[in-house]
Amino acid sequence: MSNTVKVAVTGAGGQIGYSLVFRIASGELFGPDTKVVLSLLEIPQAVKALEGLAMELQDCAFETLAGIEINSDAQAGFDGVNWAILVGAKPRGPGMERKDLISENGPIFTGQGKALQRGAADMRCVVVGNPCNTNALIAAKNAGDVPFNRFSAMTMLDENRARYQLAAKAGVDISQVRNMTIWGNHSATQYPDFFNATIGGKKATDVITDHEWLQGEFITTVQKRGAAIISARGKSSAASAANAALDHVKNFTRPTEDGNWFSAAVPSDGSYGVEEGLIFSFPLRTKEDGSYEIVQGLAHNDFAQEKLAKTQEELKQEREVVKDLL
Ligand SMILES: NC(=O)C1=CN([C@@H]2O[C@H](COP(=O)(O)OP(=O)(O)OC[C@H]3O[C@@H](n4cnc5c(N)ncnc54)[C@H](O)[C@@H]3O)[C@@H](O)[C@H]2O)C=CC1
Ligand SMILES: O=C([O-])CC(=O)C(=O)O
């Protein structure tokens, strides 16, 4: 017997949407025994493009795709959804920081937050559209009685970027790099934590002896990778962002392998001194029962404490800017 999962993707007509929806429909996300109903959302002007996207999805003849719905109304689009992947938002251009998008993109998430109350009892939401931590906060605060911990924002792309950089520097296969945490905001203040990362089961700082590189170039490369892609490609990352969104949902829907963890921005419960209620990226583990926990007990020296304080401060400032939307 097969289950059916309904997945909403907003901004499905955009760049990330085009890389994302086929992989969800193919069975990659929930496995070959789970049928997927895709609920595609767009602004009214882009609904026509979604009709074309739906034709292409049909033409893939995916055996796991049980249906496609197209909507420009979030209330209708989120009806009965199990997962809502909120991508629909404007991307930044060259020279901008992601928080410069806040006034334009923030209001999108008030209406979508309200509409998410129509989701299924187990509804989970991940915000990809930037600035994603603060947009997730807006959605969660507008979602009435939907539990706060159903909302997350994506820092998985940052984690993947950080793992690649460490693997390349150490000259090892990327599978060797584990325990990579992105702390804080999906922004240039994020802290990619090499101190607690491991390479081949050893501390990354024992394997990579160039600590100047770890404390300098490694961190800034990860923090500014999005901007580097915009500068090289003329558009922001899309396929890698879609790939990370899939990794994010997989991480939340499967128990985490022993000894490892993954990064996502979730409501702080006060762990590591982060103000309760901020949507902050932490190391997480998904348990057998499907709930997640924040990994406790990781050490932070003065260098790390300073980075954590900086990214927390930025999130508080972003929250202040959108306080009328919360
Ligand atoms: N968290 C992360 O790691 C990443 C986040 N992003 C962010 O993802 C967002 C989307 O990026 P792209 O797909 O490249 O942009 P895009 O401009 O190609 O597509 C965005 C789509 O969203 C649609 N849209 C806008 N408002 C909407 C609404 N209210 N409801 C439904 N759809 C709506 C637009 O019509 C457009 O088709 C941007 O904000 C970008 O900065 C991008 C990469 C990584
Ligand atoms: O940099 C951007 O604006 C898009 C994004 O979030 C990323 O690539 O991480």
Describe the structure.
With 326 residues, the chain is α/β, with parallel strands linked by helices. It has 2 domains: 3-153, NAD(P)-binding Rossmann-like Domain (Rossmann fold); 156-321, Alpha-Beta Complex (L-2-Hydroxyisocaproate Dehydrogenase, Chain A, domain 2). Helix content is 39%, strand content 19%. The protein has helices at 15-25, 47-59, 74-77, 102-105, 108-115, 132-141, 156-170, 204-207, 211-223, 225-233, 239-253, 302-321; strands at residues 3-10, 34-41, 65-71, 83-86, 124-127, 151-153, 177-178, 181-183, 191-193, 198-199, 202-203, 262-267, 279-286, 292-294. Helix 1 crosses helix 11 (239-253), helix 5 crosses helix 6 and helix 7 (156-170) runs antiparallel to helix 9. The longest helix is centred in the C-terminal third of the chain and has 20 residues, at 302-321. The chain is globular. The model has no long low-confidence stretch (mean pLDDT 97). It binds 1,4-dihydronicotinamide adenine dinucleotide and oxaloacetate ion. The site of 1,4-dihydronicotinamide adenine dinucleotide has 29 residues, from helix 1. It catalyses: (S)-malate + NAD(+) = oxaloacetate + NADH + H(+). This is Malate dehydrogenase. Substrate binds at residues 92, 98, 130, 161.
